[in-house]
Write a structure and sequence with these properties.
This protein is of the alpha+beta class and about 700 residues long. About 30% of the residues lie in helices and about 25% in strands.
């Protein structure tokens, strides 16, 4: 009996996952959605493998809130672990049932039958039957039993192959994103954003806005929510750009530059929680070091966009959000509609990396569509709106306190974390969609909540080190109030937690005069962790590292994402002159069974590129009016010219279950860069991003 995954327990009916279609394909349903990670290609491979089909005989229905399985949000590197394992088990069961029914038709035992591209062969001879000929005999309305085991890895022919990504052709030809989607008679919409929860619109000079727009527009006002609608996207955008000048607000949000700092955040009231082993007193020696990180934006490549149509009492929404079932529930609740009157469908977007403005834009479009029935509404945020109003990743402070034994090895470890929440997705922990704040009766204030450690953790993700330490714990200070929304960004708190843990390991190695990798191996018994660390050391030629200094350095970082998903070890080479430049990165990963090696390597490379950007340049700043980093000049991200040579190797581990891979390299990459900078300069930089200004300030204090 196969164990049922979380997704199958929540969605046990076979027909939610698999249906035979008249066009002689098999439709596979998934609640997980494509965010650029290649997951739909990998899920197609899993289904084709178990059903003995070609990949082009599989069609994926992703993120359909009416017909597909509800799997929550596509997050936390769970798509293959949750949806993939569910599809594998469902496909194996349907294949077995189909063989039994075919055997009855052909007067053969199932063992006499093989399946090739969906056709049944009896003792190697074509039978004339295939899946579609017996599809009506199969009752897929039943619940999965788990009685039929999937294939073993040594039988795979499609899983483990680097087939081309199925979503790329449309994207490369300009038709793969929601921004490219059009509907007959579609109108465009933009918004005037409320400057903070509690702000109320006093007056709005609509005549002046219409004059500035230079064309025909309608102005939709629902309490303090305002949208500009028209047939011309250019005219509508002009209206939105001009609107702030002609709006008078009461109780508008005011910020201070200091509130953008990790130090300010850590000083706010908090809910405190201790997790892990009981604390121990230091016996021989104790080391304490602190590290900080600024607020981060998602930096999505395209602003958030949604389409909505209210027709015949049904509201249909197309969105690039990360979960269509939760979005459906949240829109229905906000608008006071019956759940059955709302349908949400996923369309891919250009850039995501976590909980950005996609869900909020979907509610914006729905609000306008309710006022203008029978007319499709395309609502897109402006770039400054995306930077200014999407949820941010919280600024953080992490302090590591380590007791050492007589040999200078860690004997007791506390990771202390100060952060606002990383888990405010709508419907989670009392969080809601942005425009709900603009209603005269907004939802109640959110209570402090973050993702619990048993679900991977939010701010405390990867705060427990992978190393062999007799006592490990987390001291978590969940900050109650910060002046901006915070939520999930790729990796959540893992990036700074791994950065801090690995910086401390380098410090401890230096105290006893040992090589950083040798020191780590002495405190690391997990054989899979040791294997990735030894592999990356060989890839990077670590043995010739040298003493460092003179502005050239080599650093290492390692973690197992969430301490339950893929293992990643990274070595980074840097040059430090006027600024830090990463010249080379090597990465070794153990993700267990890898479905699509090329796709996995692409994901790891992208995660490393993003980690370089976080480590060296990205940070949100505030001024009195709000977030001040509203464009690519004030919020720079890494450019192609700054991307180093990146080499990724996947360790063969197909005997193990597939592990989540999309976020595994971010923390180790940032840590490797931090340790490489320390190696180059002879001093550790304790704050991300490691800008020229911060390095100079640290040098003056050294």
């Amino acid at each position: 009996m196969a164990a049922l995954s979380h997704s199958l327990k929540e969605n046990p009916r076979l027909d939610l996952w698999l249906r035979f279609l008249d066009d002689r394909t098999v439709r596979i349903g998934t609640g997980k959605v494509e965010l650029g990670q290649g997951v739909l290609t990998a899920l197609s491979q899993i289904a084709a493998e178990e059903l003995d089909l070609r990949v082009d005989q599989i069609s994926i229905m992703s993120g359909n809130s009416l017909q597909g399985p509800g799997e929550g949000y596509t997050a936390s590197s769970w798509s293959i672990e949750h949806s993939g394992s569910a599809i594998r088990l469902v496909a194996a069961e349907v294949r077995a049932l189909a063989r039994m029914h075919a055997g009855l038709r052909l007067n053969a035992s199932p063992d006499e039958l093989t399946i090739v591209e969906g056709a049944f062969f009896k003792n190697g001879v074509a039978s004339g039957l295939d899946y579609w000929a017996i599809a009506d005999d199969l009752d897929l309305s039943v619940e999965v039993s788990g009685r039929f085991l999937p294939k073993s890895a040594d039988q795979y022919r499609i899983v483990g192959a680097s087939i081309p990504r199925l979503d790329l052709p449309e994207k490369l030809t300009g038709s793969g994103f929601i921004h490219d989607m059009t509907l007959p008679g579609m109108l465009h919409a933009r918004t005037l954003r409320q400057p903070g929860r509690g702000a109320r619109l006093v007056t709005l000079d609509e005549a002046a806005i219409k004059r500035r727009a230079g064309g025909d527009i309608s102005i939709i006002r629902i309490d303090s929510f305002v949208a500009f609608v028209g047939a011309s996207e250019t005219v509508v955008r002009a209206a939105a750009d001009a609107a702030a000048t002609y709006a008078v607000w009461d109780n508008a949000r005011m910020l201070s530059p200091e509130a953008a700092t990790a130090e300010w955040v850590a000083a706010q009231p908090s809910t405190d929680l201790m997790m892990g082993d009981p604390p121990q007193d230091a016996v021989h020696d104790r080391v304490s070091l602190s590290f900080t990180r600024s607020f981060l934006s998602h930096g999505s490549l395209a602003p958030s966009c949604a389409l909505a149509l209210y027709q015949h009492g049904t509201l249909t929404v197309w969105s690039h959000g990360q979960g269509m079932h939760p979005l459906r529930e949240n829109i229905a609740k906000t608008l006071g509609l019956p759940l059955e009157s709302v349908a949400c469908h996923h369309v891919q977007g250009a850039g995501c990396y976590g909980h950005n403005g996609a869900d909020d834009a979907a509610l914006d479009a729905a609000l306008v569509a309710r006022v203008l029935p029978d007319q499709p509404i395309r609502l897109m945020w402006r770039r400054q709106e995306e930077f200014g109003y999407e949820p941010l990743s919280s600024a953080m402070t992490v302090a590591v306190h380590v007791n050492l034994d007589v040999n200078g090895r860690p004997d007791d470890w506390t990771t202390e974390v100060w952060s606002a929440t990383h888990g405010q997705r709508p419907g989670v922990g009392g969080a809601y969609l942005l425009a709900a704040e603009a209603m005269n009766e907004p939802p109640p204030e959110r209570k402090p909540f973050d993702i619990p450690l048993e679900r991977g953790g939010g701010a405390v993700r990867n705060a427990i080190p992978l190393y062999d330490v007799s006592g490990k714990r987390i001291s978590f200070h969940l900050i109650h109030d910060v002046p901006v929304r915070t939520s999930s960004l790729r990796g959540l708190g893992a990036t700074l937690n791994v950065f801090a843990i690995e910086a401390v390991m380098d410090e401890l190695a230096a105290r006893v005069g040992e090589d950083p990798i040798t020191y780590r191996l002495s405190a690391l018994s997990d054989p899979r962790a040791r294997a990735v660390l030894e592999r990356v050391a060989a890839m990077a030629g670590w043995s010739s590292r040298g003493t460092g200094g003179a502005g050239v350095g080599l650093g290492v970082g390692i973690a197992r994402y969430k301490n339950s998903s893929a293992y990643a070890a990274v070595v980074a080479a840097v040059e430090v002159e006027e600024a830090v430049r990463v010249t080379d990165v090597w990465c070794a990963v153990d993700a267990g069974l890898v479905i699509n090696p090329d796709g996995a390597e692409n994901q790891i490379e992208g995660n490393i590129v993003q980690a370089i950007s976080w480590a060296l340049m990205e940070e949100v700043r505030f001024d009195a009016q709000g977030i001040s980093t509203l464009d690519w000049q004030s919020y720079p991200v890494i450019r192609f010219k700054d991307i180093p040579e990146i080499r990724v190797e996947l360790i063969e581990a197909s005997q193990h279950e597939a592990l989540g891979i999309g976020e595994c390299a971010g923390g180790p990459a940032a840590a490797a860069i931090g340790n490489a900078v320390a190696h180059a300069l002879g001093m550790c930089i304790h704050h991300m991003p490691m800008t020229r200004e911060r390095i100079m300030a640290a040098a003056l204090q050294a």
